[in-house]
Amino acid sequence: MIVLGFESSCDETGIALYDTEKGLLAHALHSQIEMHSEYGGVVPELASRDHIRRALPLTQKVLDQANLSLKDIDGIAYTQGPGLSGALLVGTSIAEALAFTLNIPTIGVHHLEGHLLAPLLEENPPAFPFVALLVSGGHTQLMKVTGIGEYELLGDTLDDAAGEAFDKTAKLLGLDYPGGPAVAKLATQGEKGRFKLPRPMLNSGDLNFSFSGLKTAVLTLANNNDSDLQTKADIAYEFQEAVTEILTVKCMSALRETGLDQLIVSGGVGANKRLREQLNFATKRKLCHVHYPRLEFCTDNGAMIAFAGALRLEAMTQHMNNNHSFTVRPRWDLAELQTPSTN
Ligand code: KG4
Ligand code: ZN
User: Fold this and answer.
1) Whose C-alpha lies nearest to ligand 1, atom 22?
2) Are 197 and 155 part of one and the same domain?
3) Least CB-packed of 87, 205, 237, 322 within 10 Å?
4) Whole-number Å distance between alpha carbons of 125 and 162
5) Do 186 and 320 share a domain, yes or no?
6) Which ligand 1 atom lies nearest to the CA of residue 179?
7) Percent share of the chain, pLDDT over 70
8) Structural domain of 284
9) Residues 171 and 314 placed together within one structural domain of the fold
């Protein structure tokens, strides 16, 4: 089964083709980062308009890459939520219109399920069950995953998400949007030991997170010190150490508590090198395995949506959306998902 996937929940238009027999056939992405950067964050209306401009040319691009035409597609998957409603509506309506004309089924995919399953696109994917750390701009969650749609929430952030903390810290340090990669880059020039930031909730005894206090601590450090480049780099270094240490310790606790030995990491912050270093080291010590998506599939992309959609479409023999009415779900709890229905 060949599935075309559309991702348009935020500031990236991602389109991909996934074949349930041959794997990923093609993928293409247009990032709006440059367009939004002069505003310091995503402007929803501009995002929607840009998705309209990009969706069909990118669709043609992946078809060309795979040497296929529209009539070869068996189903269409699109991000139905959560995300910006206007941006979601663009992908959703284009996908449904296309499927209507081609008379093929569609599936609305949960964006976080896409992230969660992205590591399974790589070689030697882990089998269920595993622990998943989902670290994006809007979420920081630990989950026990026993199958498609079987997601048990183990821990969540009580306030800011890890990616949000990176973005806010970047703003405080005068760095560009998106903040994660900018903080990570500056941190490579930072000196160990000059500053010490707190590790909120490190010993809370549960698997929850809190990052907003860390951001306030960064603000205090920035206000109480010179604003030269080295100072900023030293703050970025210590901030990254704090976040990655907290994430690593909680992941190891989640593996211990569930008795599982496989961890997958996904979402934009999963691209962070220092996080990967710490997780590689900690899991190796405990004889556990950690899996990541390739770097370009940590952040938003069409491949993860085509993949998650293909798994669901393949498992479903009924309840497929063939009438092409649609809604988007800007807010959508991952725990509401169910396993694909086969009867
Ligand atoms: O998964 P994603 O592309 O979008 C959401 O669904 O939120 O994640 C974006 C987030 C942003 O907060 C960005 O600053 C962060 O991931 N990020 C990083 C890195 N690359 C992206 N954070 C830390 N280090 C990175 N290398
Ligand atoms: Zn995302």
Assistant:
1) 180
2) yes
3) 205
4) 25
5) no
6) 14
7) 98
8) 128-292
9) no
| Alpha-carbon span 142 to 119, nearest angstrom | 15
| Ligand at shortest distance from the CA of 304 | 2
CB 9, CB 87: distance < 8 Å: yes
Residue with tokens 């030995």: 261
Nearest atom within ligand 1 for CA of residue 164: 12
The answer to whether position 278 is within a domain reads yes
From CA 76, how far away is CA 92, in angstroms rounded? 10
The verdict on 29 and 102 lying in the same domain is: yes
Distance CA 136, CA 301 (A): 13
User: What is the DSSP secondary structure assignment for residue 139, as one 8-state letter?
Assistant: -
Q: Which of 13, 116, 117, 136 to mutate to test the pocket of ligand 1 (most atoms within 8 A of CB)?
A: 136
More confident call, 335 vs 309: 309
Q: How, if at all, do strands 262-266 and 289-291 pair?
A: parallel
Query: At 75, is the pLDDT very low, low, confident or very high (cuts 50, 70, 90)?
Result: very high
Rounded to 5 degrees, φ, ψ at 74 are -100, -15
Task: Decide the pairing of beta strands 140-147 and 150-156.
Answer: antiparallel
Q: pTM to 2 decimals?
A: 0.93
E-strand ranges in the chain read 2-7, 12-19, 23-31, 75-81, 106-110, 130-135, 140-147, 150-156, 262-266, 289-291
Residues 215-271: pLDDT tens digits? 999 999 999 999 999 999 999 999 999 999 999 999 999 999 999 999 999 999 999
